[in-house]
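Troubleshooting entry. Yesterday's outputs looked truncated, so today I'm pasting the complete records for two proteins to confirm everything comes through intact. If either block looks cut off, that's the bug. Protein one:
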Amino acid sequence: MNQQININGEKKSLINKIKLIIVIIISLAIGFGIDFTMQPFMKKQNNSNQAEWQKKMHKFEKKLLESKNKNNQLEQKINSLQEEKEILEKELKELKKEKEILVKEKKEEIELEDDEISLDENKIKKAFIKYIGNSSRYKEENIYVKTDQITDKHFEGSILEKDSENLSSPNLLAVKINDNWEVIYWGQDVPSCTEINKHNFPTSMVNKCGNEEGMVMDRK
């Protein structure tokens, strides 16, 4: 009896173990089934994410390349402008140097002309005294020359007295002959056409003159 009970107990224990093994096998089978079922989906999802990532990376690389190209173009433009700036600075420097030379030459020319005019005015003063005679009230030390127009051969101006208002000063015309000035007219009327034309006075200096009949003529 006891032996029969032991046999039955062993059978139950064996059956329970077999059931447990079956449950484990079924559980494993279900687990592998789920894994096999999910693998295609996961693989597809991974492929989709990778494609999206590659797409974004491609866009980023494209923008980076465009940015580099723009940067290179900007650098080239900056270099070009820098070269133009250097050229302009060089030209400006040369122009300043030329300007300084021209200003210096012009200053020297003006100073020379002033010296020449001053020298000519002294000669005209002497020629005026000779023209009116030494007996006149005009003395060389008491007069000075006012220049209106002067060329290398012709002069127009007036003689002014020192310490005088000189309200109405006669017009004076002189011509240079053999490096010496000669007064040909001094007065307030129009000069003689004969003298004016004889010495070829420019019309800008003398535009009217009197003919032999005393008529005033326009010079052309």
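Protein two, checking that the full record survives here as well:
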Amino acid sequence: MPHRPKCKFQDEHFYRPERSITAHYFQKEDAPLVIIGAANIYLARAEAAQRGLSTESASAMYAAGIQASFDQWGLGSASTFLSSVALTGGASDLQKIATQEWVAWFPNGLEAWDVVRRTGFPVLTPAPGTTAIPTRTPYGTNDYSYNAANVTDAAARYTVSGQTDSQYGRIWWDQ
């Protein structure tokens, strides 16, 4: 296991690997699940370039991200696929980048959901019987048990159609 420097908040009560069933498993070099892969990094860099936050080429980072995603899954060359989804310098480029970010997060659905919430892409269809895609995770029962006053106050801020702590409430950065 790699050396993990002790942070200032770490003590015998704060972080104990034996409390997590996944701590050692996913820290191994041969762990079967990629936590953050090369494709995710390249595509985040493509998005940053597209938004004008870096001087890198959005197209180059986008192509590298898609190829890295193909490599991760053993799919060979992405060149044919890339020709059908290439960036054009138009308004749809952010949608294309976000959609590939969403795909590249498989099988980590929570991170893929974050891409949708952050960018609005890809445009998803709500499940049957619902009217929208959830925008947040409601507070858990432990939150209410251990921090009732603060959680109750915070949950009231996420009231939608009369439902407190709604999964459809808009979080602070999504106002």
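Both blocks look complete. Sanity check on protein two: Residues 1-15 have pLDDT under 50 and may be disordered.
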